[in-house]
Design brief:
2 copies of one chain form a homodimer. Chain A has 200 residues and is mostly helical. Helix content of chain A is 71%, strand content 0%. Chain A has helices spanning 12-31, 38-45, 49-56, 59-72, 83-99, 104-116, 118-145, 154-171, 178-193. The radius of gyration of chain A is 19 Å and the shape is elongated. The interface between A and B is large, with 40 and 40 residues. The first copy, chain A, binds a DNA duplex (30 and 30 nucleotides) through residues 7-8, 10-13, 16, 37-39, 47-51, 53-55, 58.
DNA sequence: GGGCTAGTGCAACTCGGGTTGCGTTAGATA
DNA sequence: TATCTAACGCAACCCGAGTTGCACTAGCCC
């Protein structure tokens, strides 16, 4: 898949790419991943569908490109000075990210896309690895403060904290509220304190 | 959606339904949910595609029917006499269920299908609610033995134990091994012991 | 065993996502 | 400003999933 916009970075090419990306996000929000068609994205972007097919190849390509864009965006990592509050803020952020009427539908569509396709799955993997790394300081700071045992794996704590939310949202399809997010954070905290995530 | 085979339970109708169900599972295992087409299932079942369309309506209907069938099947709940071992057996069972070369592809396809479609999502919800209920005795026995505080919510413990596996398998797409399954079980155990899942 | 009907097989059709070949436009270079 | 070419627009096309109308078969009931 040719990464779009490498040969002729200025002018129309760049405008087309931006318009298509915006249209992809808007279509994902409106119709979800299953309702995403190249034709609709092209029409929304004011571009012909053959252009989109040539540069992004398929709907998967559109999603991968949009996810790559999202990976690069900055992301607020909580830093309250206390691990419990940090983890709760983190899980709350995840929950809001998927339930917020504005951002939720597109975020949901990304996860759905990742579950299906190898290319989008790889993009989602990269995206979440980046997020895990960005969130790691929450844990390392806690270790430094003596809240957690030395050697605690930050990634494990973060994954354990957010996993129940994803599970309820996308697998078991149970309702999720703020209390669930807090409980998930508290569970990760308790497990981490008990030394469950201390590596070798 | 008309539940197949209610009016004429015997003979050809029942044979067709069984053949289509088997074919659906086989096709899911071979080509995944995205590669599942009504035509292929019909051909594999030795049945005309219009028959499948009339009785199951769509690929989603096929998956829902197969999931309903799976919900009814018995399922071995570990009972070792110790909570840690029970939870580890549980998470191990989940992991094997998705990574086993025989059963894994179809199980994976079910989760992927549930992420996409409302009908299959509802079927998956029912399926997992049944599984949570079946697994609840693991926790209630531990409470009775005094391993966990009174009032511990069994569903929370089970969800917390299995959620990291689903997260790695279907969301972040990270490799998962037996050690991860054990850690997930241990984390749920530590959180439960700390009283995180005690409900008011 | 002879009607009755739900369920099935069949073939032709619809329809929309995706493809292809070619002419045109717009941005880069000098 | 002249030129060159990557990128785009356009229309026609392909293809296969899903639909429809009708004939037929196999279970059910007397």
């Amino acid at each position: 898949m040719p990464r779009p916009g490498t040969a002729r970075p200025g002018g129309r090419t760049a405008r087309t790419r931006a318009a298509v990306r915006d249209a992809t996000l808007a279509e994902l929000a409106d119709h979800g991943y299953d309702g995403l068609t190249v034709e609709a994205v092209a029409a929304r972007a004011g571009v012909h569908k053959t252009t989109v097919y040539r540069r992004w190849e398929s709907v998967e390509g559109l999603v991968v490109d949009a996810l790559d864009l999202a990976s690069g965006e900055p992301w607020p990592v909580p830093d309250t000075g206390e691990l419990r509050a940090d983890l709760r803020a983190l899980t709350r952020e995840v929950l809001v990210g998927f339930t917020d009427p504005a951002a939720g539908p597109a975020a949901t569509a990304f996860v759905v896309a990742a579950a299906r396709n190898a290319a989008t799955a790889a993009a989602m993997h990269d995206y979440l690895v980046a997020r895990h790394e960005q969130a790691a300081p929450i844990v390392t700071r806690a270790v430094d403060r003596g809240e957690l045992p030395t050697g605690t794996d930050p990634g494990d704590v973060v994954r354990t904290a957010v996993a129940p939310l994803y599970y309820r949202l996308f697998v078991s399809r149970e309702p999720v509220d703020a209390a669930d997010a807090e409980r998930a954070a508290d569970a990760a905290l308790a497990a981490a304190r008990a030394g469950t995530f201390v590596r070798g």
